[in-house]
Amino acid sequence: MRVLQRISFLVVLLALLAGSRVAAAAKPGDKSEKIPVIYDTDIGGDIDDTWALCLLLKSPEFDVRLILSDYPKHPAYQKTEFRAKVIGKMLEAAGRTDIPVGLGAGEKEGRGKQRQEPWVEDYRLEDYPGTVHEDGVGAMIETIMESKKPVTVIAVGPVSNLGVALKREPKIAENARFVGMHGSIYVAYGGRGDPAAEFNVKCNPEALQAVFAAPWEKTITPLDTCGIVHIGGERYKKVRESNDPLIRALLENYRIWSGSKDGKLPGASSTLFDTVAIYLAATDAAFCKMETLPLTVSDEGMTVIDKENGHQVKAAVAWKDLDAYKDWMVERLLSPTVRP
């Protein structure tokens, strides 16, 4: 009888040890459990892309595989190399030069002046310690097609790169999902008025039409939610007083972008549109009211509910708890940068 009891005890003990090893292997934050991500951004225009990049790099849910410079369709604002410089210098500040940088498919130089250019005027992209892909779209396609797990493409620009990528290799939609900052469903900028042609959509409606038509899971934060996000007061003070190198780089960009003549930071953030896309990609979006809607994109850049011809898109159409989201965002920004 004692022999049987000892055997039973050993079986239970071995089961417990095996269970603990499995639990350890599946611990949140392990690279095997992380979400493979490509961040497609027109950084260097509005400062919210830079805030969103910091939030991305502070989020332990993500395994960032590639950051790609997106661009408005108008050649005066493309400047894909400038945007890649901002990405590269920010990644150096974060200590994440393991992440490859890709140039978008638009004009390398462009003609328009962008407000963050003084921050990278002495920065050479060829000195970036990590990998730089001249063909960023090709790198995006390769990253998606070779991934063992579906890749989340977080796109916070006009999706020009995705339009090109889907033409070049439509099969990327079979191994990816799309999370974007696009559109205006029920309200316009600032949460006021009728729906508007949102900037990212208006810049290249054809590209977003292709993204919506592709057979992948689609989630967006339209102006209805992202257009009313900003931080001030104690939340902003905490960020402003941070000594984290990545946050200091963000704030220096913000100071330059704001056009401050006295060298001081603004007293609050600008509208942080793109940060909401990071939240939607990382979480179950508990702070948002989500609706799955049949959406189409007009040639004028309107995001339209169309029951007959629309494509099913999950949209964050309202906030259940905007203050909770702001607290979540600030807590993330003040946390350590995720290491590879």
Total beta strands: 10
- The tally of helices reads 12
Radius of gyration: 22 Å
The CATH class designation is Alpha Beta
**Unreliable stretches covering 5 or more consecutive residues:** 1-30
CATH architecture, please?
A: Alpha-Beta Complex
Written as H for each helix and E for each strand, in order along the chain, the element string is HEHEHEEHEHEHHEHHHHEEEH
Looking at CATH, which topology would you report?
Inosine-uridine Nucleoside N-ribohydrolase, Chain A
Choose one word for the global shape: globular
CATH superfamily membership: Ribonucleoside hydrolase-like
Mean pLDDT: 89
Strand content: 15-25%
Number of domains: 1
Q: Going across the biggest sheet, name each strand in turn.
A: 4-3-2-1-5-6-7-10-8-9
Sheet of most strands: 10 strands, mixed
Give the N-terminus to C-terminus distance in angstroms. Answer: 52 Å
Structural class of the helices, strands and pairings? alpha/beta
Residue share in helix: 25-40%
Describe this structure in words.
With 340 residues, the chain is of the alpha/beta class. The protein is built from 12 helices and 10 strands. It has helices at residues 2-25, 48-57, 80-94, 136-146, 160-168, 199-203, 205-213, 223-226, 233-240, 245-258, 275-282, 322-333; strands at residues 35-41, 62-69, 101-102, 132-133, 151-155, 176-180, 218-220, 288-297, 303-305, 311-319. It has a 10-stranded mixed beta sheet, with helices on both faces. A hairpin with a 5-residue loop joins strand 8 and strand 9. Helix 3 (80-94) packs antiparallel against helix 10 (245-258) and helix 5 packs across helix 7 (205-213). The protein is globular. It starts with a helix and ends in a 7-residue tail after the last helix. Mean pLDDT is 89; it is low at 1-30.
